[in-house]
């Protein structure tokens, strides 16, 4: 029994020393509380960052709102391009074999329709044969052997006109390129 008593005393003595050491370390690790100037500087920095973040948010939402209003009618404009193409094909056919009065009436309607679309920001792209092929504005439908050496890699024919809406391409010009 005395042997067990000695072991318990040793354990209590060892744990007591550990507690004293731990208490000393805890007291030494406690840092001094920040001063009011440091707290003020920290809060001021946090305020400035929050203010800048809010200003960026306001600018971003204003830009998104402008983009939304600018391109809100994009789907409608894209659907109207088919009607515009049909008008152009009809005018070409009527020019071949229709009387002059009918042709002028349809041309007036076509001009009025095109002007209304232009007022809303729709612009046709100017694409001509012989220009350089540009991926940002043109869609190559096919390549054919170039009729001349200077037309290699350039536009040979324009199949369908391209359009932009407020400087954003909504339909690429469909072209044939020379190889």
Q: How would you sum up the global shape?
A: elongated
Trace the largest sheet across and list its strands. Answer: 1-4-5
Number of strands: 6
Q: What is the CA-based Rg, rounded?
A: 39 Å
Total DSSP helices: 4
The whole-number mean of residue pLDDT values reads 84
Describe this structure in words.
By secondary structure, the chain is an alpha+beta fold. Helix content is 60%, strand content 16%. It is built from four helices and six strands. The chain has helices spanning 2-29, 36-71, 74-97, 100-119; strands spanning 122-124, 138-144, 155-160, 163-165, 168-171, 173-178. The strands form two sheets. It has a three-stranded antiparallel β-sheet. It has a three-stranded mixed β-sheet with strand order 2-6-3, with no helix packed on it. The longest helix has 36 residues, at 36-71. The radius of gyration is 39 Å and the shape is elongated.
In short:
The chain is an alpha+beta fold.
Keywords:
16% strand; 179 residues; alpha+beta; three-stranded antiparallel β-sheet; three-stranded mixed β-sheet
Topology, pairings included?
Elements: H1 2-29, H2 36-71, H3 74-97, H4 100-119, E1 122-124, E2 138-144, E3 155-160, E4 163-165, E5 168-171, E6 173-178
Parallel strand pairs: 2-6
Antiparallel strand pairs: 1-4, 3-6, 4-5
Helix pairs in contact: 3-4
């Amino acid at each position: 029994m005395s042997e067990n008593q000695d072991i318990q005393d040793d354990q209590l003595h060892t744990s007591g020393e550990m507690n004293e050491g731990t208490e000393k370390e805890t007291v030494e690790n406690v840092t001094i509380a920040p001063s009011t100037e440091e707290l003020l500087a920290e809060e001021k920095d946090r305020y400035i960052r929050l203010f800048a973040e809010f200003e960026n948010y306001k600018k971003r939402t204003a830009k998104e709102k402008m983009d939304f209003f600018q391109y809100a009618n994009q789907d409608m404009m894209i659907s109207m391009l088919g009607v515009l193409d049909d008008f152009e094909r009809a005018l070409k056919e009527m020019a071949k074999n229709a009387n002059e009065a009918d042709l002028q009436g349809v041309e007036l309607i076509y001009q009025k329709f095109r002007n209304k679309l232009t007022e809303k920001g729709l612009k046709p792209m100017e694409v001509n044969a012989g220009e350089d092929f540009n991926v940002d504005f043109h869609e190559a439908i096919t390549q054919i052997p170039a009729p001349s050496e200077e037309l290699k890699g350039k536009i040979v024919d324009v199949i369908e006109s391209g359009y932009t809406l407020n400087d954003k391409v909504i339909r690429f010009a469909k072209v044939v390129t020379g190889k």
